Amino acid sequence: MKADPTAQAKLVTLAEVDAEIGRLTHRRSTLPELAQLTEAEQRVRTARDAQVRAETRAGDLDRDIARLERDIDGVRARTARDQQLLAGSGVGAKQATELQHELETLARRQGVLEDEQLGVMEEREAVGVELDHTGGEVTEAEAAVTELTGRRESAEADIDASRAGRDRARAELVAALPEDLLADYERIRARGRVAAGQLRESRCGACRLELDRTFLGQVRSAAADDVVHCEECGAILVRGR
Fold this sequence. Notes:
The protein is mainly alpha-helical. It folds into two domains: about 5-25 and about 180-240, no CATH class; about 30-160, Helix Hairpins (Orthogonal Bundle). It contains five helices and four strands, in the order ααααββαββ. The protein has helices at about 5-30, 30-85, 95-175, 180-190, 215-220, and strands at about 195-200, 205, 230, 235-240. The chain has a four-stranded mixed beta sheet. Strand 1 (about 195-200) and strand 2 (about 205) form a beta hairpin.
């Protein structure tokens, strides 16, 4: 393949631009804010899960407290009724004995229910503290996500602005290159390699390796418009500039 030496020289600039684009792409995908944001989002999920568990437990305890209150009210109402019957006239000795026994049973039942209610209320108070704590953790974690999202977006915007400039520079360079020379360059670049490099003394500017003397002699004796490739990495070797 042959190409004007001026066109070949543009390949070095193109390779530099492509290298910068690659660095910008890598930098964008490895921003420290990305990992930090992932961790912060996990903290939000963990905090929300804890909050939901606490809310569920609080709801269960509230229902238990309400149920116990109803049971205690029922016992109190039954006690009041029995006391009223016992105090009334026309109650025989047997009925009075039965009522007295029932009142004692109701009193024990009320004591058990009230003790249970007290225990549940104490647990509910502890869960209330946990709810406040988990709510604070959710708020703090969400604030961290918001702050990190802003930092990430700002960093990405800076990188994207630089990338846009490099993309424009690349488009201008590509437009000035012969199609066959560009195709050769892109074929090499598609392999994940630096596609062009300046020949500096006896080193390839793409792979930085020292080249064989015999090969160098062939390169230097080639016509100026011959497109030559590094024997080590395959990059287009640009001679003179």
